[in-house]
Amino acid sequence: MYIVRHGQTYFNRYNRLQGWSNSPLTEAGVEDALKAGDRLKNIGFSAAFCSDTTRAQQTAQAILDANTCWASSTGPRPFISDAAFREQFYGYFEGHDMGEAWWAAGAPHGAPGYASIVEKYGLAATRDFLKEADPFHDAESDAEYWARIDSGFALIARTAEEWGLPDGSPVLQISHGNTLLSMMSRFAPEGYDLTRRPANGSITRFDFDTGKTLDSAISVAGYNE
User: Fold this and answer.
1) 87 annotated to bind ligand
2) Which of 3, 84, 183, 193 is the most exposed, fewest CB within 10 Å of its CB?
3) 8 a known binding residue?
């Protein structure tokens, strides 16, 4: 799996939380997508997946448009856009300044910021504390978040089986910053710098054994490349 973080958006530029909400790619974000496409242009993708947000769809399309193997394919290949691949849902805090949002989540627990929440309580607490601070409690809890993300991996495995993709088939997925960080924390908590989100347009590589349960199915081959 070649997992690419979408190109920079205006919310990224303005340092605002962007989960299920959406903002357009900036000019730099379009360049992020084009550069990723150039780096991956000779990878023979058998399938592609992205969230149903515009930023992910635009990034995916730019990469596939540049891909020589995808363009020359003689038959259809699955390209699936699904809500299972969305970023974490921040509820009431969608579009808020990141510093303000994470202060609201962590300050009642003596951790006035994202990094301090992670350091003191772990990454899962960032989701649970934000849901607690959300006056509507719409933000995803850690359990709600992972149930949805796990369903995305199940969709990939199911698609591979239904389309008869051979073992070792390269697959493209467009993902999101906090989700990539969360996956790395879950599947490779040591040996990588997880103090900041991966760059827009960066490439992370997973080996995904669809015949195993998820916690033992993922091995990391590269991060934030």
Assistant:
1) yes
2) 193
3) yes
